[in-house]
Every structure is written in structure tokens, then in C-alpha cells.
């Protein structure tokens, strides 16, 4: 918008939310300092692949609201269930206005007993246990920070291909850490779930690489380092103090002189 362009003219640089936006500004000839600092959910020390190689479940973590389309996932899982192992379950984490209807649908459906509604969970240790049992996470509607959260546990994500996704969609890099399916299609999402299940050995083996990529690009350290780098560059390379944040091990900006 006009206000954003005016702010860019007044500023020495811009901290972008995504690498895609940073590349766009560079290609458009923006002459200020450009730094990408994507959102993050965990410190690098907390990012690791699943503890178990026996993960068999699909997981949804998010609000139970129409825009997130949790009913699409439920229907797709119930459709796919006969082709999946009896040990494969669907864990739905979250709360919202659709929860009651989703429970009712599961209670009256074949294989509905393989669906677990776990409510809202914010405790990181409880979430870690859920992701440890997850073969893949699923975003049946628009994706947000949940994709970064899944990758922080080395878990790939099944994502709708045509939804108004948040900027975090940039984290999806198929076929390394994500699978896209045709949006709003129960049949295509069901097919995608079956495909992930058939290739489960491959996806489980990719867990460490998924977590490593997340640590490099989407850890709190990576985000803070990018912001600190921007501050250093805007300062013109003047002497700066090291950035100290409790719990984060952050390097000094490249070529910076310490006080």
C-alpha cells in the first residue's frame, strides 16, 4: 500500500517477514538494507526429530473454525481409514465452534473411534509427545505457524495447495518436508494421507533433515540474529555490543566491532 511504500522511503532498510518478500524487494530495485527474519516457535536446542521411529498417526493442531477446514480432514481420514493400519489414528488438537459437530460426526462414523479430540494444548512437553507419535501433520485449510511447529519436531506436513495461507507457507518445500493436495477435496486429501502412509519409512527417515532445516531457518536464534544483523548494518558498522538474550546463543553480527 501507499503507507508501506512511504515508510520504506523514510527508513534505512526493511526487515521482511519472509525470504520471498526480501527477494521481491531486491528484484524491484529497493536500495535500502533488506533482511529476512521469518517467524519462529522454538530455540534451536528445542528443535529435534521425533524420539520414535514408530510414529503412525496424523495430527492436526489448530483452531476448529471454518477457515481451517478441520471437517475436511476428518472426512478424509475416515474415508482413508480402511486403507490404513488399525494402528493409524487421527489426533485433533484445538478448540473452537466446530468441535461439537466434529465429535458428533466421528461418533456416528465407521472408524470414528480412531479419532482423538484432545482439546487445546499449549504445554510444549505435551505437544512433543503428540508429535512424537505423528507420521505427518495436516493443514486442511490455510496454514499458519503450525507448519513451523511441525517441522521443529521433524514432522512433515500435508498442505492444501490453494488457500489464503499465512507467510509461513514459505517453510513448505515439497517433496523434502511437505506434500500438497488439491484444496477442498476430501478425495484428494484422503489420497494424500494414503500416499504418506505408503511412504512412511521415507518420511520417518527424513525427520532429522526436516528438523535441521527448521533449526537453520526458523529457530528463535535465526530470527534474532537476522534482526540484530539489520541493526548492525543500519548503524553503518559502528561499534556494537554483543546481543545477549537469556536462553539464546547468538553470534555477533558479521564483521562487527565489539565494545
Structure in words:
Helices cover 38% and strands 14% of the residues. It is built from ten helices and eight strands. The strands form two sheets. The chain has a six-stranded parallel beta sheet. Strands 1-2 form a two-stranded parallel sheet. Mean pLDDT is 91; it is low at 255-259.
Could you describe the largest sheet, including whether it forms a barrel? 6 strands, parallel
What's the overall geometry? elongated
Q: How much helix is in the residues?
A: 25-40%
Number of strands: 8
Distinctive features:
single chain; 259 residues; alpha/beta; six-stranded parallel beta sheet; 38% helix; 14% strand; elongated
Task: Give the gist of this structure.
Helix content is 38%, strand content 14%. The chain is an alpha/beta fold.
Secondary structure elements and their pairing?
Elements: H1 2-10, E1 13-16, H2 19-27, E2 33-36, E3 57-61, H3 70-80, E4 90-93, H4 99-107, E5 115-119, H5 124-132, E6 134-139, H6 146-151, E7 157-160, E8 178-181, H7 186-198, H8 200-205, H9 207-218, H10 220-234
Parallel strand pairs: 1-2, 3-4, 3-6, 4-5, 6-7, 7-8
Helix pairs in contact: 3-7, 9-10
Amino acid at each position: 500500500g501507499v503507507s508501506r511504500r512511504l515508510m520504506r522511503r523514510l527508513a534505512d532498510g526493511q526487515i521482511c517477514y519472509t525470504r520471498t518478500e526480501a527477494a521481491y524487494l531486491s528484484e524491484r530495485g529497493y536500495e535500502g538494507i533488506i533482511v529476512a527474519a521469518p517467524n519462529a516457535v522454538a530455540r534451536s536446542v528445542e528443535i529435534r526429530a521425533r524420539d520414535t521411529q514408530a510414529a503412525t498417526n496424523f495430527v492436526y493442531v489448530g483452531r476448529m473454525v471454518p477457515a481451517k477446514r478441520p471437517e475436511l480432514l476428518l472426512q478424509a481420514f475416515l474415508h482413508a481409514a480402511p486403507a490404513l493400519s488399525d494402528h493409524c489414528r487421527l489426533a485433533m488438537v484445538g478448540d473452537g465452534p466446530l468441535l461439537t459437530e466434529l465429535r458428533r460426526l466421528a461418533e456416528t462414523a465407521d472408524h470414528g473411534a480412531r479419532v482423538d479430540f484432545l482439546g487445546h494444548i499449549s504445554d510444549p512437553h505435551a505437544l512433543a509427545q503428540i508429535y512424537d507419535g505423528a507420521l505427518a501433520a495436516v493443514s486442511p485449510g490455510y496454514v499458519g505457524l503450525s507448519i513451523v511447529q511441525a517441522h521443529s519436531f521433524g514432522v512433515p506436513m500435508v498442505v492444501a495447495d490453494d488457500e489464503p495461507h499465512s507467510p509461513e507457507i514459505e517453510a513448505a518445500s515439497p517433496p523434502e518436508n511437505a506434500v500438497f493436495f488439491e484444496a477442498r477435496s476430501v478425495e484428494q486429501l484422503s489420497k494424500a494421507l494414503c500416499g504418506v502412509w505408503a511412504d512412511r519409512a521415507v518420511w520417518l527417515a527424513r525427520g532429522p533433515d526436516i528438523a535441521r532445516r527448521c533449526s537453520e531457518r526458523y529457530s528463535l536464534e535465526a530470527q534474532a540474529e537476522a534482526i540484530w544483523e539489520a541493526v548492525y548494518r543500519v548503524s553503518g558498522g559502528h561499534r556494537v555490543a554483543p546481543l545477549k538474550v537469556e536462553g539464546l546463543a547468538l553470534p555477533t553480527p558479521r564483521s562487527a566491532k565489539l565494545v
